[in-house]
Structures
1.
Amino acid sequence: MQHTILERTTIKHLTLRLVPFLFLLLLVNYLDRVNIGFAALHMNADLGLSATAFGFGASVFFIGYALFEVPSNIILQRVGARIWLARIMISWGIISGAMAFVQSEQWFIILRFLLGVAEGGFMPGIIFYLSAWFPLAHRSRANSGVVAATAVASVVGAPLSGFLLTSPPQLFGLVGWQWMFLLEAAPAVVLGIVLLFVLPESPARARWLASDQREWLVSTLKAEDDANPADDHLSLWKVARLPRVWVLAALFTCLLTALYGVLLWLPQIVHSLGKLTDLQIGFLSAIPFLCGAAAMLLIARHSDRTGERLRHLAVPLAVGGASLLASAYSPNPVVAFIFLTIAAGGIWGGLGVFWTLAGEFLAGAARAKAIALINTLAQMGGLIGPWMTGALKDATGGFAVPLTLLAVASFLAAAIALLMNRLPKTSLRPPMVPAKAYSPTTNSASSQKEPTA
């Protein structure tokens, strides 16, 4: 796909200005999610939590998250991403820090629920925000550049959490897992305040873009929105009646079942492979997520280059499912870990492509509602994956059966993507709008040379 110099420089400027900061926000967000898996290595014994109780507590987060997902995204679309994303970050940081002071199973469950309420709408808010800045031809790479943080959070958080767990047994009356919660929650509050001052609201107000860049971007995004057959002012009820929303929600439910089953249980799965220290578990647990982040960026880049979405989603998920099965029944711990790493690459690999698919068929407020609704419905996967993994581990005494369940979920997600690919293309997504929608009338050379800053 050929792009003009004006288009390339505009997208490069956008990427450098927005993607690293949004990546950092999501990195901190998922750091607060994955640390519960490491805390469990000692917290479960301190609080007397069974695997089933921990799995339910880890999962109840998604009930609160799902309940407030759609309302949160509707408010974000009305008041602006800057204010609302800052509110989300500050409130979740406070609640996540409070996890350090949990004393019982009941309070563990309550705070996990409240954390889900506080975080509700953050991920779809980020995806909606990106869709308001990046044209379709570049959106998958932008999404993946940010969503890669969901995997990188574990690359950073796994060794960090392992290190914090090995801190002195008592420091100011708190043990390692309590300090881990406090220290990993603080960045959310700080960045929530910073966000208020640095996040731009809309392309039309982006004075840091050159005038021809801003005009090209605004006109291209408007042309894409105008090409969408859906009404920008669809009510939530009408959005909920769109078949595409339910198909994507079913696909994402299966994907999240596999993803969160691996994400929240990986430290304990790695621990089950052999006698390892907390720090060793931390470093080893980072490897599968590093593979996931790399796969996500490479697959998204190829998807944008070809303009194809569904096969770029189905193939990685099928590889992820097959690798989970191989890991579950491998008699050799090293081979089991290698397949677990490949599985993470497959499951996370299609995530950026999925969010591009979910955000490309509606405009404006309707798009915000659809993204939030898809994510809300799919949070059932976040509930099923960790909870059933814990329950099946208690029932069977190992991880073979739970990993089989997660593999089936990954296969189902791949199958749904392939079935969508058999439908007429007009029912899958609107035609790609050419990036040359903006044609300068006063300076025809502006698309042939780089604009000045």
2.
Amino acid sequence: MINAMARTILFNKPFGVLSQFTDAGSPQARPTLSAFIDVPGVYPAGRLDRDSEGLLVLTDDGRLQAQIADPQHKLAKTYLVQVEGAPDDTDLQPLRAGVTLKDGPTRPAQVRLIAPPALWVRVPPVRFRKSVPDRWIEITLREGRNRQVRRMTAHIGFPTLRLVRWRVGDWAIDDLIPGQWRDA
């Protein structure tokens, strides 16, 4: 149950931004959420790697944070993933069955090939190699391990070039541009 008084923010995290408000331990300053969101008391519900983009949900409701971040709740998270190489539907089958990574087996994922999505230009751009094709896939997970999507695509031989989280549960990026946020 979502607390009606809670504040929930949907943020389109740009590439290179940390999913935290401070970076005190780093010898070199890196961009954090504080450069974009000046709302007291909200914290990220889950994480999104520095080199990943897309939807990050922030809230001041601890229960909601747990529901989003804790894998036991099995909240669906959907990613648009550009991979190196040209996988076909058969290549994606192991992801649908679940693959075994160094930290154990993954839950089965929903995976499908998609047309290149109409996304914003990433800064810096993805490095392309003319001699190596790339394809886009959509992956929906119901767990969230460290760099899991990247490790899963690499496991089947198609390294991730670009990763955009598009949806968390019923929330989606929709028309948010990178660095923009809105109340849910």
